[in-house]
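Justification of computing resources. Each target in the renewal requires a structure prediction run like the one illustrated here; the chain below, 72 residues long, is used simply to show the kind of job we budget for.
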Amino acid sequence: MQQPITPGRYQHFKGNFYRVLYLATHSETEEELVIYQPEYGERGIWARPLSMFMDTVERDGKVQQRFIRVSD
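Resulting structure tokens:
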């Protein structure tokens, strides 16, 4: 695991908010996945590799986290 994350509310670098529900392990590859739900639109349940969730992005010449925890 790269960095531990915990369930709670996170903000995407583009501004939308998401609720991290669980951390899961892929049954075939054992890749760690983040199970999360957008706080907008249809509010479906999504999975994203932990490595992608914790990744950094460059925007307007600044490197920042893709998601930042904002509350429980």
